[in-house]
Amino acid sequence: MSQKSKDQTTISEDDSEFDIDSQEKVEASIFSRVLRGSIALFVLVGLLYISGVYQYFFYQRTPLSVNQVQIENRVDAQTFTLPLTIFIITASAPYGSIRSEENVLHLVENASRIWDQAGIALTIKNIYIISKSDKEMKVFSDAPAAFIQNTEGYDTTTINVFLVGNLGGINGIAFGGLYSVAVADYTTVYDFRALAHEIGHMLGLHHVSGSQGQLMYRGANGFELSLEEIERARLRAQRFEEL
């Protein structure tokens, strides 16, 4: 082989090594950028969660223009009245509710339309607007039983509904044994369906895994009740009426 051919071979091999090395550096650079971007996104999401700002990006307040369609009563029996005591908890953002009395009436009226199918009518016994400090709201988060039971107006002959701005990313929660539920201002479903869902828990209903059109399907925007659920809920509702 001539010297010229050997030189060309050497140059070709060197170029190949150079290309591989450059490719590895590019791949490493891309991986590094993706990793840094992922870390930055993770930190940003964490900050949004801690601040509560995420609530306003991913959740919405239910407009007063949205109404629950009327549902036919599926039972030929007495209608039971289920009384509610409403607490609008005001506090600094993001914990305090900004609901008005008009909003509360809309919330309960539409939730009641859902329970019409079971022959259960929701009524408001009292509405309280209560101002709480950040320290007191922390008690609600860490020890809800103490917060609820020490709230003036708390009434165990009714279902107590606590309306707050933020529930840590959930729409609502039922407090078993305390005759109480809480619903956030900002929800991923219509707030009146969140309220109707939590009342379902108070009436002895559990989450279901069937159709997302069902009221008790976790996190869904449904409103349908089975006949079995209706029968179970009416038994519990009757007890409230007899208190």
Characterization of the model:
With 243 residues, this protein is an alpha/beta fold. It has 2 domains: 1-51; 61-242, Collagenase (Catalytic Domain), CATH 3.40.390. It has 7 helices and 5 strands; from the N terminus they run ααβαβααβββαα. Strands 2-1-3-5-4 form a 5-stranded mixed beta sheet. Strand 1, helix 3 and strand 2 (120-131) form a beta-alpha-beta unit. Helix 3 (101-115) crosses helix 6. The relative contact order is 0.13.
What is the name of the CATH topology of the largest domain? Answer: Collagenase (Catalytic Domain)
Sheet/helix structural class: alpha/beta
Would you report the number of β strands?
A: 5
CATH class of the largest domain: Alpha Beta
Could you give a short account of the major beta sheet? 5 strands, mixed
Q: Taking all residues together, what is the mean pLDDT?
A: 86
Distance between the termini: 107 Å
Give the overall shape: globular
SSE string:
HHEHEHHEEEHH
Short description:
With 243 residues, the chain is α/β, with parallel strands linked by helices.
Core attributes:
243 residues, alpha/beta, Collagenase (Catalytic Domain), 2 domains, five-stranded mixed sheet, 7 helices, 5 strands, globular
SSE diagram, text form:
Layout lengths: L2 H49 L2 H5 L21 E11 L10 H15 L4 E12 L2 H9 L1 H6 L9 E6 L7 E4 L4 E5 L6 H12 L24 H16 L1
Parallel strand pairs: 1-2, 1-3, 3-5
Antiparallel strand pairs: 4-5
Helix pairs in contact: 3-6
